[in-house]
Specification:
154 residues, mainly alpha, 5 helices, 82% helix
Length: 154
């Protein structure tokens, strides 16, 4: 039953997104408005459009929610795969959607603090670059010594 509902919800949501469906809705409202004088703008005439739009809106809420839940889950899985596949990513970010509101606020404030001081981040990158260059120099010197030692022994 759930699979059938999900397929129907997806199909209906896709169809409702087309311009033709919007034009049909507009035409329906225009026809209803044009018949107002014929029915004397009676309570029954008003009740028809009110009931019709209420029922359609009520049903569309469930269809749209189903489609949105499915799309959100698919996006979440794609992001989880990107995090999992990236060696530099923190895998503890995979299940953020399962955190409480307070836990999410703490994670967000951590990222806000990181973003609030770009100068510090740039400085840290420059420091790391200098350290990397120094490490490369040390490795080159060590490699040269090994090559020289190999020539002496050979």
């Amino acid at each position: 039953m759930s699979h059938l509902f999900s397929r129907a919800a997806h199909w209906i949501a896709e169809q409702c997104g087309h311009a033709g469906v919007f034009i049909i809705a507009v035409m329906t409202v225009l026809v209803w408005a044009a018949t107002g004088p014929f029915f004397g703008y009676s309570d029954t005439w008003q009740l028809i459009i009110n009931t019709g739009t209420t029922v359609i809106t009520f049903l569309m809420v469930f269809l749209i929610q189903n489609t949105q839940n499915r799309d959100t889950a698919a996006i979440q899985l794609k992001l989880d795969e990107l995090i999992r596949a990236n060696q530099d990513a923190r895998n503890n970010m995979l299940c953020l959607e399962d955190l409480s509101e307070d836990e999410l606020k703490r994670v967000k404030s951590t990222f806000a603090a990181l973003a609030s001081s770009p100068e510090k981040a740039i400085g840290a990158v420059h420091d790391m670059k200098e350290e990397l260059e120094e490490t490369e120099n040390v490795l080159q010197e060590a490699n040269s010594r090994l090559v020289m030692a190999g020539h002496r022994d050979g």
